[in-house]
C-alpha cells in the first residue's frame, strides 16, 4: 500500500480521537487553571481591556489537591477498590472462561450468551436489585446476623459498606473479564497441550507452562476493561456505598453537579485520566509478550 | 521391542482399528502407510497414550503401556502441526521435556546445543517459532521430541505441510538422523513414495486392518493382495480365473486377454476356478511398434489409447482387444534420449509383451 493510502486509512480514527479525546482533554486542562464562575461553571479566562489581553488563570485548583490528604487518600482507596475488583473478577472469570473454552463447541455459544445475559437489563435496575439483597431486612443480612447473634458478635450491616460496593462492582464487570479471556483461551491449539503432555508435563505443569502464559494477553485485556470503568465509577458507590464506600468518581461528580466547582472537578478528572493512561500503556507493554497469540 | 497385539478401536459404529497386530524391532524405521481414514493416527495416538484401545494390548519391551498416561510413557511424538510452543524460544521448546524430567541446568544446555547441532540449526536457539520457516520448525519439533532420548519416536505425517522439494530434502535428513541417534521411529504417512524411501519395514493399512507388513522392496515386488498392489506404486490389475495350477506355473484366463501362463505365487495357494488378479508393474512391460517376444514371454498386439508425458518417462495406456472386450494396460517408456518422448502417438498400432514371471498373482 502506498503511504498516501495508509495515511488516508488512519485519518478517521485520528479525527475521532482528536475530536472526542484530545479536544475535551485540552478544554479540561484549561478549565483546571481557571476560576469557578460566580454561579457555577467557569469564569472567563481572559479580559480584553483597552486592546490589551489579561489572562485570569490560577494554580490554586491544583494546589487544593494537596492541601488536605483527603483527595489523595480517596484516590488511593479508589485504586485499591479497582485493583481488588479486577483481581476478584480475574479469579472468578479464569476458571469460568477455561471451562467454557473446554466445553463442546455446540454448548459454547449458549454459555457465552448466559455470561452476557445480564446486559439485557438496565444497569441501574441491577444495582437496585443489589440494594434489596443487601438491605437490613433482606434474607442475606438477617441470616448473617442470626449467625453473629449465635456467636455473640455485633450485628453487621451490609448496606452502605465497602463490601457492598466491591461485590456489585465485581458483579457488573465480570463479563468484561470473561469475554476477552474466553476469546483468548478458545484460540489455543489443543495440540500444544497434547505436545506438553507427550513430553512429560503433568496436568498442573501443562497449565502453568502452556495455558497460563499464552492466556496473559487475554487477562491483560480483561483487566484493562474492568479496571478503567471501575476506577471512575460513581453510580454504584452512590447507591450502595454510603459514606464508607465513597470513591473518587463520587467526588468528581459532586464537584460538577453539587458544588458546581468545575475547575477542581477538572483537576480530579485529569489526575484520574493520567493514572488510567499510564496503567493502560503498562498493560499494553505486558500484553505484547513475544510469540503470544494475537 | 514395540508390540501391538490385537488392538481394536471403535468410534460409535465405525471400526477405526480392527484386530491390529504388529511388531517393531529396536532401531527400526517402521512406517504405517495407508489411505486417509484407515486408522493410522488412531493407532499412533494409542501408542502415545492419547487414545485407549477397546481391546488388545500395546507392549514396550515386554511391558504393557496401557496403564500409563501419556506423560509417563517413554514415547515422544512429532505432531503434524509441529505444536511448537509459540511463547518459548527454540531453546526453551527443546529444553521443555528435559525440564519436565528434572534434568540439571548445565546438562540441559549441553543437550539442547547437541540436538540443535544434530538438526543443523545451531544458530536458531534464541529465535521464536514464528520466526522460522516450515522446514526449520519441523526440525525443531523433531529435535524437541528426540532430546530426551525416548525409547520410541512417533511421527504423524511430519512432512505433509512442506513443499515437494523440501520434503525430499527432509526425507534424506530423517534417514540420516535416525541412523545417527539409533532411536526406533514409527512413522505415519499416506504417501507411498515417502514410505518406500524412508522405511526399513512398512505396514500397509486399509480400513482399520493391516494388509501387509514387509520391507519396501518386497511390498513392491510381491504384494499380498489387490489393495497393496494398487496402493504401492503404479500397477495393472487384471481380474481373472484360475484354469490350472501345476507347481511353478499357473494358467489363468483374463477377460479380454484369454488364457495365459503366469508364475505361481508360493505364498498364496490357488485352486482351479478361483478368482484371482494378475498384478503387473508398468515398467515390467516391453512396449514398441513391434517386439520379438522371447520364449518365456507373453505377447499381445494393441493400440495406443492415451499417453501421459511425465518428464523422465511417458506413460502409455494400451488398449488390447483379443476376444472382444477391450482391456487397458499401462506401460512405460523412459525418455532417455531426445525424440523418444514422441516415439508413439495415440492410435498407433503397437505390441506389448512381458516375461511370464513379471506378473504377480494375488486374490
Ligand atoms: N475421536 C474420534 N471420534 C470419532 N471418530 C474418530 C475419532 N478419531 C478418529 N475417528 C475416525 O476414525 C477413522 C480413522 O481416523 P484416523 O485419524 O486414524 O485416520 P488416518 O489414517 O490417520 O487418516 P489421515 O491420513 O487422513 O490422517 C476416521 O474415519 C475418523 O473419522
Ligand atoms: Mg492421520
UniProtKB/TrEMBL annotation, chain B:
Function: Part of the ABC transporter complex PotABCD involved in spermidine/putrescine import. Responsible for energy coupling to the transport system.
Cited Pfam families: ABC_tran (PF00005), TOBE_2 (PF08402)
Catalytic activity as recorded in UniProt: ATP + H2O + polyamine-[polyamine-binding protein]Side 1 = ADP + phosphate + polyamineSide 2 + [polyamine-binding protein]Side 1
NCBIfam families referenced in this protein's UniProt entry, alphabetically: potA
Subunit composition and interactions: The complex is composed of two ATP-binding proteins (PotA), two transmembrane proteins (PotB and PotC) and a solute-binding protein (PotD).
GO cellular component terms attached to this protein's record: ATP-binding cassette (ABC) transporter complex
Protein name according to UniProt: Spermidine/putrescine import ATP-binding protein PotA
Family: Belongs to the ABC transporter superfamily. Spermidine/putrescine importer (TC 3.A.1.11.1) family.
Gene name, Swiss-Prot/TrEMBL: potA
EC id: 7.6.2.11
InterPro entries, A to Z: AAA+_ATPase, ABC_SmlMolc_Importer, ABC_transporter-like_ATP-bd, ABC_transporter-like_CS, Mo/tungstate-bd_C_term_dom, P-loop_NTPase, PotA-like, Transp-assoc_OB_typ2
Domain ABC transporter per the UniProt entry, residue ranges: 2-232
Amino acid at each position: 500500500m502506498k503511504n498516501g493510502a495508509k495515511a488516508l486509512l488512519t485519518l478517521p480514527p485520528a479525527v475521532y480521537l482528536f475530536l472526542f479525546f484530545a479536544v475535551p482533554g485540552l478544554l479540561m486542562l484549561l478549565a483546571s487553571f481557571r476560576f469557578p464562575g460566580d454561579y457555577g461553571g467557569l469564569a472567563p479566562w481572559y479580559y480584553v481591556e483597552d486592546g490589551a489581553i489579561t489572562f485570569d488563570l490560577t494554580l490554586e485548583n491544583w494546589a487544593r489537591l494537596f492541601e488536605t490528604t483527603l483527595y489523595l487518600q480517596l484516590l488511593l482507596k479508589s485504586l485499591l477498590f479497582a485493583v481488588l475488583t479486577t483481581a476478584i473478577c480475574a479469579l472468578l472469570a479464569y476458571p469460568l472462561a477455561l471451562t467454557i473454552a473446554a466445553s463442546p463447541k455446540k454448548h459454547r455459544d449458549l454459555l457465552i450468551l448466559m455470561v452476557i445475559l445480564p446486559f439485557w437489563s438496565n444497569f441501574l435496575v441491577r444495582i437496585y436489585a443489589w440494594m434489596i439483597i443487601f438491605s437490613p431486612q433482606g434474607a442475606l443480612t438477617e441470616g448473617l446476623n442470626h449467625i453473629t447473634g449465635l456467636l455473640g458478635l455485633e450485628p453487621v450491616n451490609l448496606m452502605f459498606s465497602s463490601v457492598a460496593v466491591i461485590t456489585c462492582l465485581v458483579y457488573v464487570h465480570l463479563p468484561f473479564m470473561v469475554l476477552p479471556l474466553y476469546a483468548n483461551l478458545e484460540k489455543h491449539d489443543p495440540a500444544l497441550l497434547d505436545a506438553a503432555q507427550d513430553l512429560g508435563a503433568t496436568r498442573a505443569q501443562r497449565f502453568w507452562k502452556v495455558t497460563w502464559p499464552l492466556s496473559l494477553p487475554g487477562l491483560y485485556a480483561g483487566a484493562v476493561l474492568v479496571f478503567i470503568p471501575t476506577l471512575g465509577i460513581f453510580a454504584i458507590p452512590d447507591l450502595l456505598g454510603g459514606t464508607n464506600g465513597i470513591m473518587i468518581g463520587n467526588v468528581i461528580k459532586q464537584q460538577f453537579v453539587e458544588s458546581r466547582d468545575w475547575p477542581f472537578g477538572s483537576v480530579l478528572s485529569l489526575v484520574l485520566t493520567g493514572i488510567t493512561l499510564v496503567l493502560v500503556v503498562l498493560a499494553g507493554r505486558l500484553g505484547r509478550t513475544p510469540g503470544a497469540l494475537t | 521391542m514395540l508390540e501391538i497385539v490385537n488392538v481394536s478401536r471403535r468410534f460409535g459404529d465405525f471400526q477405526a482399528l480392527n484386530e491390529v497386530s504388529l511388531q517393531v524391532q529396536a532401531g527400526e524405521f517402521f512406517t504405517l502407510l495407508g489411505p486417509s481414514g484407515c486408522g493410522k493416527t488412531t493407532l499412533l495416538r494409542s501408542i502415545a497414550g492419547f487414545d485407549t484401545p477397546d481391546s488388545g494390548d500395546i507392549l514396550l519391551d515386554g511391558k504393557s503401556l496401557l496403564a500409563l498416561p501419556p506423560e509417563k510413557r517413554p514415547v515422544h511424538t512429532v505432531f503434524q502441526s509441529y505444536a511448537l510452543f509459540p511463547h518459548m524460544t527454540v531453546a526453551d521448546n527443546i529444553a521443555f521435556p528435559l525440564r519436565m524430567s528434572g534434568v540439571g541446568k548445565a546438562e540441559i544446555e549441553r543437550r539442547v546445543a547437541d540436538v540443535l547441532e544434530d538438526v543443523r540449526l545451531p544458530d536458531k536457539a534464541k529465535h521464536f517459532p514464528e520466526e522460522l520457516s516450515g522446514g526449520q520448525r519441523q526440525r525443531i519439533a523433531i529435535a524437541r521430541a528426540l532430546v530426551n532420548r525416548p525409547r520410541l519416536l512417533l511421527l504423524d505425517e511430519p512432512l505433509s505441510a512442506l513443499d515437494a522439494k523440501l520434503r525430499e530434502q527432509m526425507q534424506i535428513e530423517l534417514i540420516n538422523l535416525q541412523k545417527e541417534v539409533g532411536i526406533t521411529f514409527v512413522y505415519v504417512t499416506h504417501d507411498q513414495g515417502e514410505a518406500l524411501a524412508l522405511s526399513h519395514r512398512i505396514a500397509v493399512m486399509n480400513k482399520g486392518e493391516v494388509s501387509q507388513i514387509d520391507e519396501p522392496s518386497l511390498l513392491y515386488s510381491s504384494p499380498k493382495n489387490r489393495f497393496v498392489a494398487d496402493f504401492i506404486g503404479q500397477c495393472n490389475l487384471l481380474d481373472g480365473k484360475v484354469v490350472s495350477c501345476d507347481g511353478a506355473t499357473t494358467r489363468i484366463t483374463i477377460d479380454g486377454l484369454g488364457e495365459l501362463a503366469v508364475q505361481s505365487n508360493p505364498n498364496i495357494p490357488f485352486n482351479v476356478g478361483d478368482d484371482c488378479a494378475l498384478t503387473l508393474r508398468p515398467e515390467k512391460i516391453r512396449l514398441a511398434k513391434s517386439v520379438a517376444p522371447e520364449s518365456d514371454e507373453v505377447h499381445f498386439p494393441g493400440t495406443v489409447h492415451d499417453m501421459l508425458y511425465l518428464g523422465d518417462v511417458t506413460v502409455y495406456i494400451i488398449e488390447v482387444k483379443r476376444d472382444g472386450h477391450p482391456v487397458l494396460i499401462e506401460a512405460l517408456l523412459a525418455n532417455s534420449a531426445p525424440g523418444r518422448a514422441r516415439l508413439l502417438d495415440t492410435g498407433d498400432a503397437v505390441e506389448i509383451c512381458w516375461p511370464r514371471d513379471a506378473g504377480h498373482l494375488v486374490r
